[in-house]
Amino acid sequence: MGAVLGDARGGGRGRAQETARDTSDPEEAEDTRDREAPRDEPSDAAEDDGEESRAPWWVAASIVGVALAAVLAVPVLRLLRGRRRLRSGTPDRRVLGAWRELRDALRLCSVTPPPGNTVSDTVALVTDLLPARARGWAEVDLGWLGRAVNRVAFSPGVAVTEAQASSIVEGVRRQTRELRLSRGRARALAWWFDPRPLLWRDR
Which helix (H) or strand (E) holds 92? Predict the structure, then answer.
């Protein structure tokens, strides 16, 4: 009988231990899952940090690209406008376009003709800015331009011929080039990237 009681007590302890293991296993499994779950979080955080660190580079690259495109667009737009002024339209319009190109060049040299200046006064301002070696041709080129501008403005019935307009246009190109080169190498290069002439009104 003692053996039976011992077996009963032994069996009871065994069943109690199994019950304890059975009841503790789910909690241990949940604790294990809870401890293992956060292991994935550092990798997710690392990926987020990587994306955030890459984003400013894309933003910076976009800003630089837009700024570069704007800078390069200035000389292109100015060349297109100069070509339209000097090549398009009637001879009279081309003469007036050459006059506007010369006035823009004068303003790029930091000289703005006063509102009351005559054509001859403006031509004299340009001539004074040119180097001595260029003044011989300047008197010829700008003299033709001044006479043609006065003719178009004050004698509309006297037409300017195609040949005259072409000569005047070439002369203005020559003198504006001399003005640009007389400013020094750095300013001559920056000349084409100055956006101000695109904002000046034609007068």
Answer: helix 91-108
Mean pLDDT by 10 residues, the chain (203 residues): 44 48 49 51 52 66 79 90 93 95 94 90 93 90 95 82 95 95 89 92 73
Question: What are the residue boundaries of the structural domains of the chain, listed by start?
Answer: 1-77, 89-199
121: nearest Cα among 109, 135, 137, 103: 103
DSSP assignment letter at 155: -
The pTM for the full model equals 0.68
Q: How far is the C-alpha of 199 from the C-alpha of 194, rounded, in Å?
A: 10
DSSP annotation of 28 reads H
* Spatial CB neighbours of 181, under 8 Å, sequence gap ≥ 6: 188
Tokens read off for 52: 């955030």
> How many angstroms separate the CA atoms of 172 and 99, rounded?
8
Residue pair 160/148 in contact by the 8 Å Cβ criterion: yes
